[in-house]
Amino acid sequence: MIRRLVESCRRHDRSLSDCREAIFAYELDDHSAAAARGSILAELTNLGIPPALATRLAEAWVRTADYLIDAPALPPVDFVIGNPPYIRLEDIPPQTAAIYRSMYSTMVGRADLYVAFFEAALGQLAPNGVCAFICADRWMLNQYGIELRRLVTSGYSVEAVVEMHNAAPFLTEVSAYPAVTILRRARQGPAVVASLDRPAEGPNGRMASALRSTREGKKTSLPTGLKATRLQGWFSGAEPWPCSSPERLSLLQDLESRFEPLESEKSGTRVGIGVATGADKIFITKNGDVAEASRILPLAMASDIADGELRWSGHYLVNPWEEEGLIKLQDYPRLRLYLEQNAEVLGKRHVARKNPVAWYRTIDRVNLPLCKQLKLYIADIKDRLNPVLDRGETYPHHNLYFIQSDVWDLEVLGGLLLSDIGQFFVESYGVRMRGGYLRFQAQYLRKIRTPQPADISRAQAKELTRAFRKRDRNAASEIALDIYGVKGLSEGA
Fold this sequence. Notes:
Blueprint (H helix, E strand, L loop, with lengths): L1 H10 L13 E3 L2 H17 L4 H11 E3 L2 H4 L6 E6 L11 H10 L10 H11 E12 L9 H10 L1 E7 L14 E7 L6 E6 L9 H10 L10 E6 L14 H13 L1 E2 L7 E5 L6 H4 E2 L10 E5 L15 E3 L2 E2 L2 E2 L6 H9 L1 H5 L2 H5 L19 E6 L1 E2 L5 E4 L3 E2 L3 E6 L4 H9 L1 H10 L8 E2 L2 H4 L3 E2 L7 H13 L2 H12 L9
Parallel strand pairs: 1-2, 3-4, 5-7, 12-19
Antiparallel strand pairs: 4-6, 5-6, 7-8, 9-22, 10-20, 11-13, 12-13, 14-15, 16-18, 16-20, 17-21
């Protein structure tokens, strides 16, 4: 920046002393700030700037202060560039954290401090200004990034995301997932998504040039270790942004443009989650005699579908609900006795303290007809999408998601979800946990794109049903790839 600034002043016959407010650099640590000023002084001296002026500029450009506190009062700028600190909320003094939260509305939940830096930088940009950060990319996917994603998609554009998880971009090893993210205060246009799995090879600036050409739709050779693809636009709203390789993101955007979400207002298909009780040790039992038969429902657990078929383990849900609402305990003496024996534990739950009269309710209301209805079960945490058919025999526990449909043969839909295409969608939208497991949550399942049932031939439907029953992922994948018009799915595509 200093070299370019000096060159510009000389080209336009301007004094460098006019540039005291051309650069604002912030550093909290005194020693680091002093080191930065020393680097600036050395650079200016090498460029032939008189020592006195160089010293004044170094002192003016580097401020030992808190950028988050100062940012709202700073003038609009064309560029904000930085590496925001990765600091968890619990590691910030409570009083300081409270100040940051009051100033930056995107700091919700357990947001890391870098979320506030993004908001501060975006708020400082002049029209068409650019924010370029190297920072953890978890905010694009995690719940705590929801308000930052909303802010970005409401008034800014994503120009580039360069994932660098395996590139070791820092001098010391960090336990983060770094990416270079470039955001502009402008309407959304094409974006480039790239991944770098090693330090890029080639002349200085080649990677930036290649990324720029890719975004502009020009054919270009990429430096070794860099993969990149051009997206026509960016993802909208506050939902998690897909995080995958450039090739897979390109395929995802293509499929999203050609197929409808599994659940929408017009789809006739619904995704839900099983019952949360707030006291599983009391409301879930293997003793079917603890209450009247009408107050007991067979309950499906995640372990009941582990091998691809529903094998009920004998668990029951003690159900305090009727279709009209919460039951009257006096109408069910055995249930009343059982619940009153556990009243102390049940009464301590938040849901009970909020409504003491309904101290014996489960957190979620039980939808009685669901027990007898056809549905697909999907376990919350697995390494593979593994849909299992329930023929109206059980009610789902809260670690199971379920899919119902007015338009699909559920075995045909189950075959599609069993395929590599079904897995591809969840891998694109979700985040792998430790051990390689995925969260198959409703927010991801709803976004899976599916064809219209009428667009699947009888032969294809028959083969999907057969593959679903036999748990034949390869056969299901072969048919699904044909239905979706996809040649194949490799690790990078």
